[in-house]
Each structure stands twice: as structure tokens, then as C-alpha cells.
Amino acid sequence: MKNKYRIINSIITALILGFMAISCDNHLDDLRENPNAVTAIDDAALFTKAVRSLFLGTTDQSVYRFSGHYGHYFVAGSTARIPDQYGDGFDAQYNEMFTGMYGGVIRHIEEVLEITGSGDTANKVRYAMADIIAVLGYAKITDAFGEIPYVEGGKGKTQDIMQPKYDTQEFIYKDLVARLTESIEILTSANPALGYPGSDPVFDNDLDKWVRFANSIRLRLGMRLRYADNTYSRTVVSQCLNDPFMETNLHNATMIQTEGNGNPWYNYRTGFPSIKMSAKLTDQLQQTGDPRLSVFVSIDGNGNYTGMTNGLNDAAFGNSDFAARSDMGTALSSRDSELYVMNAAEVWFLRAEAALVYDQEPAEANDYYRKGIETALGQWNIASDVIADFMASPTASLTGSGDEEQIGTQLWLAFIPNYFEGWSHIRRTGYPEIAQRTEPDLAKGVTNGILPKRFLYSSFELSSNSDHVTEAISRQGDNKIDTAVWWDQND
């Protein structure tokens, strides 16, 4: 009997091994045909991931350590405060930001562009939508560092380019404008079914909103070139007038982060690093009776709004009673607070600036300026009667003297909570004015108290891609934080 069972078990074992051998042969055949054993890549999932990375990039360390301070929006506690002293000893952070910007938005969106750009998976509508996200991703990196890998950038995976050449910011900006123009042309008459239904976390595949978004970004880029190439800037702005803009808060490019603890500013307000709102921001809102004060700034323990001075040296900071200062407003820093990459208010103010300086139409500029303020207040659900009262105040109309400063200051406020763009705006326009630090309790850093103008290429980038980085530095200027990027020519 035992022998009988042994025979049966042997037969069963042999059958199992035979099936396994056949299965393994089939699997090996699959691998020979496709070494990665992947039959298709879901570009919709990659697109969604790239979009989310773009929005989360408005809260990363390029913001909470650097541009949020440089834009004089807030002061972070602990070691996150140190860049507020205008130093440059942050090699590891510079490298993390550089690689992180490419590793997030750019890596995913380049894959989408590869998939949708040619072959059996080509899709002009999806490509156009993805290209708009790519433009914003590359714009942030070049605004942060200046010259960057662009034509060959982000293609380590798709094209095996591991030491990409650097392109001039002038070339990058003009190509970004061209890409937006092409996307607008495609999406204006496109079939929404060919887009990303169910995978668009911003506009839910509403192509009219995507066209408005792309044209508004084009306006932002065009106006950013105002001092670097005025003729080209005028051409771009004129071109933008032929297409619709973002005009109401229903057009805002916004997203709610639902994963983890939600909006990252919630962690910064309640945990680490602690964030206190800037005295410059708080004073501006208080002095003009701006109803956004209670939106952007929380009351302190004494029921007051008390901002924190940017740039204090260590001794002065130790005496500043940092913990008692006003936190970031809960509308900006709750778990479900919205993240923004662009809003309609910004567009109205850009149009006001263009009408004032390009068209010499002060009345039209004032109309756009007032529309910008009204839209900005409405973005934060401020009561209509409160809005009406503020619109009747002197702040809500251009005075004919210092109009550019008025527009610039309101645009600075409208960028909140996209603080990185606020820093870029100050670099471009000089508004609001950030004076050179001369007071003894303020740190002058390595810039002699002048607002930093860029991030540094890290030692890793200098060693791993030495020839191309060195070439970029030779064109752009010294690898220092007070070396201006190409478009920053408003002296």
C-alpha cells in the first residue's frame, strides 16, 4: 500500500513539475519579447501623478525654506529659518531641490509626452494637456536656477541622456511660449473625449478651462520678459489677447491634496517646522484694512495679528518671542485647504500692468486692477458687503501716481499661497520693495543684505555634469545667489 501511494505521489509530482516547466517556458518567451514584462504604460495615471507633483511643489522645501522667506510671506522656525539670513551654505538642499523638481513633475510628464507624442499611442489632445504641465514644471526650475537642462532635460529614462546640456533661459522661455501656443491651438477645437476624462484633478477635463489656463500662463511668461526682451514681451502679450483668459474663480487652477495629512501647510502650522507669518505681509494687510488679514494670518494668543520680522540674526531671533507670533491662517493651512498654481486674480493684475505700461491706457488698467482685487477677495469667500466696503477704499483704485507699485503689491498678495511665484514676481518688478538690510539686528548673509536672486548649482551637479554646468556658469555669471537670472533685469 505504501508503495502504491509513493507511485501516485510520484506521478502527481511529475505532472506538477511538467506544468511548471511549460509555464516557465511561456514566461521566458514573454520576457524575450518584452524584457520588462510590461505590455502598456498608463499615461493617464502618469499624467495625474505629474499634476499632483506640480501642485505639491508649491509646498516643498524650495518654498518653506527659501522662496517663502525671500518673498517675505512668512518665517519658518528651527533650521528651516536659516536661508532667511541670506546665506548660501545649503549644498545638500540645492541638490535635493534640483533633482526633486526633475524627479517629480518632469520625469512623469516627459514619459507622458513620450507615450502620447508618436506611434500607436499618439494623442494630440493628451499631448497638449501634458505639455502645459511640462511648461509650468520647467518654468519653475529655470526661475529657481537660471540656465538648466531643457532640450535634453528629464530624458534620462526615456532617451538615456545622463549628462544633459544646459540651455539659456532666453531660449527656454521663448520655447515655453511656443509650446503653450501650440497647445492652445490644439485644445481650442479638440474633442474632450480624447483628453483625460476621470484623470484630470484640476479641471475635470474641461478643455475650455485648459485653454484659458494655457493662455494665462503664456501671459505670465510674456510679462516676466518685460525687462529682458521688451519687444518680444509685447508680441507675446498681444498674442494672448486673441485667446480667452482665466477671468473668474471658477477658472482657478487649484487642487485639494487628499492623501496623507492633506495640505502640507497643515503640518507646518501644527508641527514642524513652525510657520509664522511675515511682519511685512501682516503690516500691509492691516494698514490697508484688507479683509484677507483674517484669511492669511491667524490671531495670536492675545487676540492680535503679530507678524515676524524676516532676516533677524540669531541674537535678535532669540529675543523675538517667535512662538507667540501669528500662525498661518487656517484657510491656507487646514487639511483640506486648496493648493494653487494660478488664479484669475493674478491674470487681471497682469492685464492691468500690460494695459498701463504697453497700451498707455490708465483707465483700462484701473478697471483690470479693480477686477483683480474683487476677484482676489472673492477667492477667499469674503462676504459681499465686506468686499464692497473695501472696493470703496483708496487701495482699490489706481491713483495715477505709483500705479505700478499698487499693481505689483496687489499681485504679490494674489499669489498667496503660491509663494514661489511671489518671490519671482518681486525679482521681476521690485514690488513690494524689499529694502537692502542695513539694520544691526538683520543678517546680511553673502549678498550684503540684498534679496537673493536664484538657487545655486550643487557640488554634485558640478561634478557629475561638469562641462555643461561650467558652460552655463560662463554664460550666466558666477554660481552665487546674487547672480540674477536672465529675465531679472529690472535694476
Outline the fold blueprint.
Layout: H1 2-33, H2 43-56, H3 61-70, E1 74-76, H4 91-117, H5 124-145, E2 148-149, E3 166-167, H6 169-188, H7 207-224, H8 230-240, E4 253-256, H9 264-270, E5 275-277, H10 279-287, H11 293-296, H12 314-318, H13 330-333, E6 338-342, H14 344-357, H15 362-379, H16 384-391, H17 403-414, H18 419-429, H19 459-464, H20 466-476
Antiparallel strand pairs: 1-5, 2-3, 4-6
Helix pairs in contact: 2-4, 2-5, 3-18, 4-5, 5-6, 6-7, 7-8, 7-14, 14-15, 14-17, 15-17, 17-18
Q: Could you explain how this protein is built, in words?
A:
The chain has helices at residues 2-33, 43-56, 61-70, 91-117, 124-145, 169-188, 207-224, 230-240, 264-270, 279-287, 293-296, 314-318, 330-333, 344-357, 362-379, 384-391, 403-414, 419-429, 459-464, 466-476, and strands at residues 74-76, 148-149, 166-167, 253-256, 275-277, 338-342. With 491 residues, it is mainly alpha-helical. The protein has one domain: Alpha Horseshoe (Serine Threonine Protein Phosphatase 5, Tetratricopeptide repeat), CATH 1.25.40. α2 packs parallel to α5 (124-145), α14 packs antiparallel against α15 and α15 runs parallel beside α17 (403-414). It is globular and about 65 Å long. It starts with a helix and ends in a 15-residue tail after the last helix.
